[in-house]
Amino acid sequence: MRKLSFTEEYVLCVVAQMEKHNALYANEYEACIIAASLWELLKDGAVELDGDKRISAVKKPEEEAGYKQLLYDYISENKPHTATKIVEHYIFAISTRNVKRLIDSIMNELVDSGHLTLEKKKGLIKEKTVYHVAGDSVDKIKDRLREELLGDGPVSDEYLILAALLFESKMLAYFFAAQEMEQMRSKLFEVKNSQAGAYVKEIIDDIEAMMVAIMVASNNGLY
């Protein structure tokens, strides 16, 4: 099986616990999926940040991953916005069409690449589709997170941000014991308060801001 992208790793971790495709449409997961996809575009040089942390298109993604192209097209067709505003546009829009297209694209690629399998189950009204993670993909992600965040060596940006996404969407508890979680949380705090982690800190701050926006909108009855 091919190597997973950063966004696909996050999605697989969620699906491993939820199994249902529709579970990904919860706003906290949607926000993290879009945040992960934005980080990939930034890392690849497809989009860039200006001095006000607004994101603008630079060049089309080199990889053919459909979800990256969908997100890039939105960014290129609209005026620059912050990551938080882009997430708000997707998950607070009147129509859920765009966010569903993005998630469906990721799921289809995971199925096509063999990382997910489908099972059809009879429901009371209609047939249900259940997703299963194939092989040991999620175990490998867990092992890498444990190695990077609990080990003595330097931590890669990718796995710092993945840990932050899983923490903010309350997924870490499914994979790690309480003591391990607390150690990971301490590592994230250290990075946020270090000069070396300034770039990652910005992204983690954006993730936290997205979660606050979701909570505020939920409390105000916006969705």
Labels describing this entry:
single chain; 223 residues; mainly alpha; 3-stranded antiparallel sheet; two-stranded antiparallel ribbon; 10 helices; 61% helix
Structure summarized in a few sentences:
With 223 residues, the chain is mainly α. The chain contains 10 helices and 5 strands; from the N terminus they run H-H-E-E-H-E-H-H-E-E-H-H-H-H-H.
Notes on the protein architecture:
The protein has 223 residues and is mainly α. It contains ten helices and five strands. The chain has helices at 6-18, 27-44, 66-77, 83-91, 97-112, 137-150, 157-168, 172-175, 178-192, 198-219, and strands spanning 47-49, 54-57, 81-82, 116-121, 128-133. A hairpin with a 6-residue loop joins strand 4 (116-121) and strand 5 (128-133). The protein is globular and about 50 Å long.
Count of DSSP strands: 5
Estimated radius of gyration: 17 Å
Please give the alpha-carbon distance between the first and last residues: 38 Å
**Overall geometric form:** globular
Structural class: mainly alpha
Strand content: 5-15%
| Uncertain residue ranges | none
Q: What is the ordering of alpha helices and beta strands? A: HHEEHEHHEEHHHHH
Helix content: 55-70%
Mean pLDDT: 82
Number of helices: 10
Strand order, sheet with most strands = 1-2-3
Largest sheet: 3 strands, antiparallel
Q: What's the helix and strand layout?
A:
Elements: H1 6-18, H2 27-44, E1 47-49, E2 54-57, H3 66-77, E3 81-82, H4 83-91, H5 97-112, E4 116-121, E5 128-133, H6 137-150, H7 157-168, H8 172-175, H9 178-192, H10 198-219
Helix pairs in contact: 1-2, 1-7, 2-3, 2-4, 2-7, 2-10, 3-5, 4-10, 6-7, 7-9, 7-10
